[in-house]
């Protein structure tokens, strides 16, 4: 009677679509330029702010609905930003091909660290996660994972074939104890499934 819809799902119970579901805003341009070439690659939230990483920089959408570019190629150089992670101090971790960056939107200062994988352009940082203790974990295609301290310094590399199967890491989450869980392809060949970081190595989760 209020206009919402209840939907019976085959295997997932009930779903509800509220009557005010059309609460969306759409941005087609920024500063008079079309956004269809931004190439959205990654997103992250920090409080009421929403960050969007793309092929030509990083954008911020604030709680008032204002969209602006906060990191352009003129400031951070050419190269798609594959992953973005906001810090509590307002700075942004940026994941790219071959390097990790720390960008300050207020000053425009950028500091970068090479991931140390050589010249392979396919070694791109696709995921950045911060552990409860402040450490950073990076998922890097065609390479593996890296653990770094809160300042970006390398602590450990876990390479493909040396503790990791040769499939992409699709998700990384920390449990209540601060231990990292990773998930990847569950196919029959070279499958990853669900792994947990425990005592210095990734261990398969039973079941």
What does this structure look like?
The chain has one helix at 73-76; strands at residues 5-8, 14-17, 29-30, 33-34, 42-46, 49-54, 57-61, 67-72, 83-86, 92-96, 99-103, 110-114, 125-130, 136-140, 144-148, 154-159, 169-174, 180-184, 194-198, 201-204. It has 207 residues and is an all-beta fold. The strands form 6 sheets. Strands 5-6-7-8 form a 4-stranded antiparallel beta sheet. The chain has a 4-stranded antiparallel beta sheet with strand order 9-10-11-12, with no helix packed on it. The chain starts with a strand and ends with a strand. The mean pLDDT is 89.
Summarize the structure.
Helices cover 2% and strands 46% of the residues. It is built from one helix and 20 strands. The strands form six sheets. Strands 5-6-7-8 form a four-stranded antiparallel sheet.
